[in-house]
Amino acid sequence: MRWGTAEPIVPGPTKYKEIIKIFAENSTIWFTIVHKETGQFMGQCCVKVAEPVKNRDGVFVISMLPKFWGKGYGTEATRFTIDHAFRALGIQRVSLNVLEGNEAAIAIYKKIGFKEEGRKRRANWVDGHWEDGLSMGVLDEEWAEMHWKN
Known about the structure:
Strand content: 35-45%
Distance between the termini: 53 Å
Helix content: 25-40%
Radius of gyration: 16 Å
């Protein structure tokens, strides 16, 4: 049994398609990112709202294939997804986690309005060294001020 729950420990899926399917099924909103011209799969992004009535906090996740990094696709998908979450779900904040070594993502998140809210030291072992994990968030009124100007 898992600590603190009545659920049994079950081995996780090993195939990417299985992992993505489970992730999609557990998300509040889910988008597959495809190239506008070719229809080629580029990645996925989603927001999960664990407590829609009480805290209304959505957690954002994005994953892009490396060949599409640095071309603005992730920024476009992030803006679209966060905007949709605020408008359609009525949530009051969106949170995310990112490793400190992902400087490009951190720059994008800050550029579109996310603020660093916390740091988990030595959160992940990456390429022979420890990296801190950053917690970032944006509130609905901050998003509206930056993105919903009339």
